[in-house]
Model the fold of this input.
Amino acid sequence: MSRLIAAAIAACLGLVLPSSTWAWGPAGHAKVCLSALELLSKRRHPLAQFLSANAPLLKELSVLPDSQGKARSPQEEPLHRFEVDAFMSAPKSPSSISLLPKGEYREVRQTYWTLLNSNAEKVRAAIPGQPLLPELRGTAPWRVLQLHRLAVASLKAGDPGSALRALAGVGHHVADLSEPLETAMPRLGGHPAAPVHGAQLAFETFVAGAASEREVRSQAETLLGGKALKPVAQTALLTELFSLVQSGYPLIEPMLAAFSQKCLANREGFPGACAPAAGSGPVFIPDPVASGLSRAALDIPEGRTSRKTTAVQAVEKRMAEASALLARLWASAYLEAGSPDLSRRFVTAEDPGLGKAYPDPDYLPDPGAAPTDPGPLPPETITPVASIMADTRGHDDKVLCAAGKVSVLFQKTSRKGNSYFTFFLSDGPAKVKVFSFGRPTVKEGEEVEACGRFSYEKRVSGRLFFNQVSAERILKGPAMRSGAVQLTPDGVLPVKD
Done:
């Protein structure tokens, strides 16, 4: 078949998608919001009557940040993302995401900027030409926090229009954070010689559109376990959102792989498959990719095992997780507002609250403020092995890094079949035992740095272990003392590879 004929057929059998992304797309955002409303209704929550009376408008407002916000301001798009891999090395364990700084954005922004600078080479390669500013890599969790506070204030003030819009906005950005591809820097799938484009567009258009609202609601109900809605305090809101991001991160590579396989398999019949038009034009997705992506098999890592599912099932599960959290956030806003009676309030399109300008982010730095580039992270602090062993109780449960030579290396397998290894880390006459999951990445006599939590006494499977570092990261060569990790009270944040 000639290229000309193939291109003509492709034009008839494929779809051309625009270049901008809408997370789960309009249909997906509506499913998340309406599923959360269903959870409230089943529990006879007082807010459910107000939201149910205004369900059509709630559905419309749930896509407002995309349909109007992104056209209104170039500042809008980063409010829908949180690209965690710009601030840390690709997490081998998604739990590392929970170690990223939380708190008011103005207070943690400098730390995020430092983390970003530490990954400058990787970030510039992924997103050439963009300034290295942390807010450009996404602030969706803090946008949720802002809109949640606005919802509380509007409910307190008896302003149903503003409250409805803010609650819908919370729903929109929670759904954004449940979309795995919104939580990583843009990347191409496929082989470097034959890259594919449009993965996020395809998932939001075809897979999210095919997701069953009934299945989303059923899974959301299962996640809550039929229980009452547990409130989320303002101080815990960011923690909940980071957990939502964390649980979706393992889907990124399987999603990209599934899309790449579909696209590359159709390149012969559709030469322009999953490739942008000249310049920065729209991406062409042929019909076989569009129709088959929902059924594509995904193999999702879960700890030291994996879970097999399909693309549409994975998307339904993520939407359900977003719905369950959203229902709790809505209930929390109502509780914080003093449980006002809005049961009989019907909001019309002419409501003054809807006529107000959509709120700009109030947590970003003043555009006129002179930026102060913080540079990369300083080297991590090394705690001498002799100091640890001289005061083992004083160092108990502390996250630290120790350096020395490897000796007495053993590789073992747990009763559950998990591989792990142990060794002694020696610095002169002093030595401390190190434990790490996986297969050995070190050799006897090698100089290494082990970072993790030190335990004076630790019980595992009924056995007691003393004076041991449970290593979350082992560094060698140039990576040692380089700022490749950051020690936090909760664990070791892997900053760069």
